[in-house]
Specification:
alpha+beta, Immunoglobulin-like, Phytocyanin-like, 29% helix
Length: 122
């Protein structure tokens, strides 16, 4: 009986909190990282993101940063302030905590390298 109860609890957990169990970690830009050399629109095109997934931004900390823009207009126009956060460690892991659209950009290279990525989370 204890085994059945444990199994039912685990099954219920998977249905109630699927993102905690199935979370995926993505390296933005894959091998190119967050460098301005990648096609970030192409990179995101074949991916489906869910609440709990993690984006990892790898880059040279003295050359780039990661800014979470507040909205689509700021993203489109490469406006870095106001923002929801600025990261500059060179290896930033950002958890996608809620459904919606996230806008990431490099405040140094957004304008002329189009170093930005928009992620929609289900």
């Amino acid at each position: 009986m204890a085994r059945v109860s444990t199994a039912l609890v685990l099954i219920a957990f998977f249905f109630v909190f699927p993102s905690m169990v199935l979370a995926t970690q993505y390296v933005v830009g894959d091998d190119l990282g967050w460098s301005g050399d990648a096609d970030y629109e192409g990179w995101v095109a074949d991916k489906t993101f869910f609440v709990g997934d993690v984006l990892v931004f790898n880059y040279v900390a003295t050359d780039h940063n990661v800014v979470i823009a507040t909205n689509g207009d700021n993203y489109d126009n490469c406006v870095a302030s106001p923002n929801f956060g600025v990261y500059d460690s060179g290896n930033d892991a950002i958890t996608l905590n809620e459904a919606g659209t996230y806008y990431f950009l490099c405040s140094y290279h957004c304008d002329y390298l189009q170093q930005k990525v928009m992620v929609t989370v289900n």
